[in-house]
Amino acid sequence: QVQLVESGGGLVQAGGSLRLSCAASGRGFSSYAMGWFRQAPGKEREFVATISWSGGNTYYQDSVKGRFTISRDNAKNTVYLQMNSLKPEDTAVYYCAANTIVTIHPNEYYYWGQGTQVTVSS
Predict the structure, then answer these.
(1) pLDDT tens digit at each of 122 positions of the chain
(2) How far apart are CA 32 and CA 71, in angstroms?
């Protein structure tokens, strides 16, 4: 069992930056692939980024490539999402999730955090 808690969301102007953190407790964090997803009002939850258990492999949604960076620190049981050059369309609740394999499909993730709100003003 893994418990996930996101933090770092907030209100930022377009062009600004935020760093989201996802702290994990429980056993086996370093063996899980981790993902970030987001859900805007009235829309389905969508894939943002994922990282393998070792951190050696990362994948991004096309719209965030070059702006967002996913990373992890297994010693701290934490995964991060650095978000730069934020746009109003990035506004959403951001969730982290854990899985045994690297995948972009949210329904394949076992564990989820409660989410953190990111609002980007124009």
Answers:
(1) 899 999 999 999 999 999 999 999 988 888 999 999 999 999 999 999 999 999 999 999 999 999 999 999 999 999 999 999 999 999 999 999 999 999 999 999 999 999 999 999 99
(2) 13
